[in-house]
Design a protein that fits this description.
The structure holds two protein chains of two kinds. By secondary structure, chain A is an all-alpha fold. Chain A has a single domain, classed as Four Helix Bundle (Hemerythrin (Met), subunit A), CATH 1.20.120.80. Helix content of chain A is 76%, strand content 0%. Chain A has six helices and no strands. In chain A, α3 runs antiparallel to α4 and α4 packs antiparallel against α5. The longest helix of chain A is centred in the first third of the chain and has 36 residues. The radius of gyration of chain A is 20 Å and the shape is elongated. In chain B, α1 runs antiparallel to α2. Chain B has two domains: 62 residues; 34 residues. By secondary structure, chain B is an all-alpha fold. Chain B contains three helices and no strands. Helices cover 83% and strands 0% of the residues of chain B. The chains are: A mainly alpha, B mainly alpha. Chains A and B meet through α1, α3 and α6 of A and α1, α2 and α3 of B.
Chain lengths: 211, 96
């Protein structure tokens, strides 16, 4: 038996109810996140409808290889996160911690690659403003959305890394029990949403004007 | 214990493989000269990948009705936001 403190918290009387409450809560939060990113995507849609050629020209300037590799990295992190969450349910503590650590490592690889990509973007003068590389002013609309969307996504991902890191440290030191702990599922669901958002962004940012 | 760890990996790696295949096909399709079709293909594949993650990795497929309703609420309001805004934007565009 684990020596970690019990998972059940006030005001819940049963763990099953607590877990339902936690899962419901995070899904409501994720739905609000969908609206948050959705409003930015709506802006993208409207700007793109108004300036179709400028968006295609600007989209061609993004680095498709950083984008594609990072998509694969993030999808793989979703795999390890899903395994971690299901292993926690099955009381496989070592597999859970191992997979949580792999998820953090993949998330960090994503951020490092994104950093290299940002450096390249700066070198190519793709930051909207006076020295912007492209002539068409509407191309700046694309790149302001590019920086906003990927930046906000990176902030979400960093928060996710903190949440998973917390589970690894607390779980590894047996300060919390990972089995049946709603915190594991809530963290996993949040992480998957960060992946889903990137999956949606990928064709809108990287796949334009390639043909 | 080992068999069930195997079962967990197997189940999830199948989803991951499907995601990788879809990623490679969307990357390849981006280089085909489809005109406006490129955007349609890109978004359709992204939606399929997102649906796989939500249904299988996030377990929405087996979730309680209450959870499905919460997730659907996000999509419903998103649809309203897009539909109402675009009805305005597209109407102005076609009148200009």
């Amino acid at each position: 038996m684990s020596t970690a403190p019990r998972v059940l918290r006030e005001p819940w009387q049963e763990l099953s109810r607590q877990r339902q409450g936690a899962t419901f809560g995070i899904w409501v939060f994720l739905a609000s996140e969908a609206l948050f990113f959705g409003s930015l995507l709506l802006l993208y849609t409207v700007d793109r409808i108004s300036h179709p050629q400028a968006f295609i020209m600007a989209g061609r300037e993004t680095d498709i290889w950083y984008g594609t590799i990072n998509t694969a990295v993030l999808m793989t992190s979703s795999l390890t996160m899903a395994v971690a969450s299901q292993a926690a349910e099955a009381d496989m503590r070592r597999l859970t911690i191992w997979c949580l650590s792999a998820t953090v490592a993949l998330g960090m690889i994503f951020l490092v690659l994104k950093g290299f990509e940002y450096a390249e973007d700066f070198d190519k003068h793709l930051w909207p403003g006076i020295n912007f590389a492209l002539k068409d002013p509407a191309a700046q609309l694309f790149f302001s959305l590019y920086w906003t969307l990927t930046g906000v996504h990176a902030i979400h991902l960093t928060i996710g890394l903190g949440l998973i890191g917390r589970l690894i440290i607390m779980g590894g030191r047996r300060r919390i029990q990972l089995r049946e702990n709603p915190q594991v599922e809530v963290t996993a669901l949040y992480w998957h949403l960060v992946d889903v958002i990137w999956i949606i962004l990928y064709p809108l940012i990287y796949l334009m004007g390639r043909s | 214990m080992n068999t069930s760890a195997y079962a967990i990996w197997r189940r999830n790696i199948l989803v991951w493989l499907a995601l990788v295949v879809l990623l490679l096909s969307t990357l390849g399709a981006a280089y085909l000269p489809l005109g406006g079709g490129n955007l349609v293909v890109g978004v359709a594949i992204a939606a399929t990948k997102a649906a796989l993650v939500v249904a299988l990795f996030m377990g929405l497929r087996q979730a309680d009705t209450l959870i499905k309703l919460a997730a659907a609420a996000g999509i419903v309001w998103l649809t309203f936001m897009f539909a109402l805004t675009l009805s305005d934007v597209l109407a102005r565009l076609s009148n200009s």
